[in-house]
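Side project, low priority. Logging it here so it doesn't get lost.
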Amino acid sequence: MREEPTGRAGKNLRALEDGRVTWDILDRGNYYTPEFVYHRLDKTQTNVALQFRHEGEPSSGQIWGNSKMDMLALQLHGLKSVNWGNFDMNTCLTTGMAGKMPDGKIPDGANVGDDFSACAAWARNIW
């Protein structure tokens, strides 16, 4: 059994894990599929990792970004269900970090579509 989050921040992040807040990735086409959510409970390093799959984007045509940098928008649904208390919602939602794992870099014994969200959540301290 996982420990209960302490403090308002940990409880706010729980909303992504328990489904009160859902999410989509937006681009100029339907290239992203939400896959997994992992809630890291670790005092001041508590965070949530959102894992999604990116595929099907045309090699040419109108895209956000360029060959060195992709752009996307994270859309969150259900934020009104979260009691932010003394926390500023915008600060909580804009202090994240992005990372990627190309298909060719997946560790031996793992497959495309496996859940790496826990690994991502514990890979780096954000604050």
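Brief comment: Residues 18 and 37 are 9 Å apart (CA to CA).
Revisit when time allows.
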